[in-house]
Specification:
Layout lengths: L2 H4 E2 L10 E2 L6 H9 L4 H7 L5 H9 L1
Antiparallel strand pairs: 1-2
């Protein structure tokens, strides 16, 4: 899967900010969590609707 399979930009969701597809979780928010020391496991525990592949795609994109 590519980042295009994981991220969507829709002006009707979060003001057009990129979000994880199928959620209202902004990409910038996940990146901020990672920058603040959260592990993949921490994020997945707090946001079970996400997958490890979602987070990996953000970092590879």
């Amino acid at each position: 899967m590519t980042i295009d399979d994981r991220i969507e930009i829709n002006p009707k969701k979060m003001g057009g900010k990129p979000v994880i597809k199928g959620t209202r979780i902004p990409v910038y928010f996940i990146l901020e969590l990672l920058a603040n020391g959260w592990s993949f496991e921490d994020i997945l525990e707090s946001y079970p609707q996400l997958t490890k592949e979602d987070i990996t795609a953000l970092l590879e994109g």
